Structure formats: C-alpha cells, structure tokens
Amino acid sequence: MKFKLTAILLVFTIGWATAQQKKWTLEECVSYAVENNLTVEQYELDLENVKIDEKDALGGLLPSLNASTSFSSNTGFSFNPTNNEPTSSTANNWSGGISSNITLFDGLQNIKRLNRAKLSALSSQYRLDNLKDDIRLNVANAYLQILSNKEALKVAKAQYAVTVQDLKRTKELVESGVVAKGDLLEIEATAANQEQQIVNNESLVLISRINLAQLLQITDYENFDVADETFEIPPSEILNNTPKTIFAKALEFRNDIKFSKSNVELAEKDLEIAKGAYAPTLSGFLQYGTRYSDVTAIPDSNGVPYTPGFKDQLWIFDGISYGAQLNIPIFNGWSTRNNVSRSKISLEKSKLQFEQDKLDLETTINQVYVDVTTYYKAYEAAKKTLEARRLAYDYARERFDVGLMNSFEYSQAQSRVDNAEADVVRSKYAYIFKLKILEFYFGIPIALN
C-alpha cells in the first residue's frame, strides 16, 4: 500500500513539473487563444441566439394552434346560456374550444424574414471568424515580441561576457603600465551599464510573456513561457505577387469583407420586408367550440324538459366556424412609408461601409507590402552595419591593447556594436511579423517555419 501511494505521488509530481516546464509553440498559443477567449464565447452565444431567430421566422410560416377553456358559476339573476332565458337559480357553466390561424399572404414578409434570419446567422458566423483572425494576429505579434526580447537578452549577455573579458585584460594592461587606471574605470562603467541593460531586457521578456499570457487568459505568469527557439528569416514567395493580386485574393476569403458584404444583403432584406407592409394581409382561421351548463333544459322526444349530461351536452352544443380575413392598409400615419425610407438609408449606409472596408483593406495591404520590403532592406542594412561595427571594434581593441586608443574611444566603439546588434534583432522580428501579416492576407496560415 505504501509503495502504491509513493508511486502515485511520484507520477503526480512528474506530471506537475512537466506542466510547469511547458514551452508553448506559436501554433499552440493561437489554438488556445481562439478556443478560450471570452469574447469568442460571447460571439458564439450571439450566433446561437441568431439561430433561434431563424426558428422564429420559420414558425411564422406555420399555422398557430391554441386551446381555451373557461368555467363560471352564477348565483342569482342571470341568463341561461343555452336558451338565453332569465333564471335565478345557481348555474355552473363550462366552455372550451380549439382555434387555428394562418397567414395566407402578407406581401411575402414572413418568407423574407426567414431568408433574412438565415443570412443573419451567416453574417454572425463571419463576425465570429473575423474575431478569430484578429486574435491570431495579436497572438502572433505578442509571441514574436517575446522572441525578439529573448534574443535581445541573449545579445546583451553575450556583450557583457565580452566586456568581462575586456575588463580582465584591461586590469592586466594597467598592472603592466600599458594603459592608465582611468581606462580601467571606463571599462568598469561600461560593464555596469551592460548589467543594467541585461536587467532591463529581462524585464521586457517578463512583460512580453505576461502580455501573451493575458491574451491567452492564463494567470500563471511566472511559469508561462514560449518555446526556446531561434527563428531565422523564413523563406517566402509572397513578394512575387503584386499588392493588387494579394488584395484580390483577400477579397475572396477575408471574413471582415464577408461580414461587411452580408450587412449590405441584410439591409436589402430589411428594405424588402418594409415594402411588404404596403401589401394587403390575408389570413384564414378555423375554430371548434362546445359548452356545458347544469341549468340547461331541452325537451326530450315526449316534449318533457330535461338536463342532458356533461358528455351529451358537449356533442349537442359543439360547433365549427371558419373563414378568412383581409386587411388592406390605407393610411397609418406614414408609418410604412417612413420605415421604407429608413431602410433605404440603412441600405445606402451599409453599401458605403462595404466600400470603405474594401478601401481600408486595400490600404492596409499596400502599407504592409511596403513595410515588408522596407523592413527587409532595413534588416539587410543592419546586418551590414553590424559587420562593419565589429570590424571597427576589433581594430579599436587592437589599438587599445597597445595603448594607442583611450578607454572612452574604445567604449564608444563597443557601444556602436551593441546598438548595431540591437538594430539587427529589432529589424529582423519587425520584418518577420509584417511578412506573416502579408501572408495571412493571402490566405497562408500563421506559422514560423
């Protein structure tokens, strides 16, 4: 028993430790965010609500069926419900019936409401999918920010390690009298500044991890982390397409465009429904009813009055009525005309919004396309600058080692290398993110491979 308990605790401990050490990939972060986002859950409930509206619209095409019953007891003067004669006795009366109504024609408004409800459900689905697209982009941006900050932290630590070696070598040069002690103090100040930069970078890593965890709605910030991978510039052929080609492709599948277009179609349906109120309404009805009263007196075959039983009265006094009703709108205070006018205005506004959304998408794609090319050039330039700065730094170190350069000039050379390496990291991840956005607009799922 003790062995089993120990084994269980060991398995639990290993599982807990594994969970704490989990490193999230981008694909895992995106999937988790989409599945657990509270706004997504709200939009999903809205979608379910719209589907209920569709059932309401379908029910409007079906006939209604209602049953009714009533019981009354009268004491004193009243009228007998069967022969309409006055009576002063206590009377117990019961009546019941079933009725059905159906709209035969209403300007096809019910059918149009059903079509609108179906379109509204589709529109809500587009809105939900568009929200998920935005979440994917936000998560990718936050994820890449962590990678960028982590890489910057590695660079800072590597720079500090070089400075520590320079500090050790400078101490030896001071002891040998090659350089002045003031040069050693300058190197020590550089090392202290780099230590501060490491602390700042560690804070940026932590903050970016918290930002992503909040997007995923994970509260265990301390143990949340992403996979420790270094991503190089990914290969992509997206720039082989023109912005116009990417825009045309985006119009076919972008959910925000589909949502905007569906709003135009909904406005068109609303206008059709509003115009349908001009048409006459024809409805049909069918009713069946019966009654019972304990003061009912009818003659038998011999002409002697008697009160039939409950069951007999139900058959004696039952009846069916049916017919049709036609309502013709003539004047209703311009209500119908005003509703039509409002629907026309709403339709025009939705058309303008649709055109604006397409224009915004085209503008965004053109901007991202320019950003991709610009950031790539900036990244290539940063790499060349870094290479030149390193060569200059190596030359400065050689001169410093033989006492031909003071510590301030040497520290400046090292600082330029630090800045160049930071520029490489920033431009690299800025380019990767813009590239992924452009690919996303072209229908390529977000992935870092």
Structural notes for this entry:
By secondary structure, the protein is of the alpha+beta class. It has a single domain, classed as Outer membrane efflux proteins (OEP) (Up-down Bundle), CATH 1.20.1600.10. It contains ten helices and eight strands. The strands form three sheets. A four-stranded antiparallel sheet has the order 1-4-5-8, covered by helices on one side. Strands 2-3 form a two-stranded antiparallel ribbon. The chain is elongated, with a radius of gyration of 41 Å. Residues 1-19 form the signal peptide. Keywords: Cell outer membrane, Membrane, Signal, Transmembrane, Transmembrane beta strand, Transport. GO terms for molecular function: efflux transmembrane transporter activity; porin activity. InterPro entries: OMP_efflux, TolC-like.
Short summary of the structure?
By secondary structure, this protein is of the alpha+beta class.
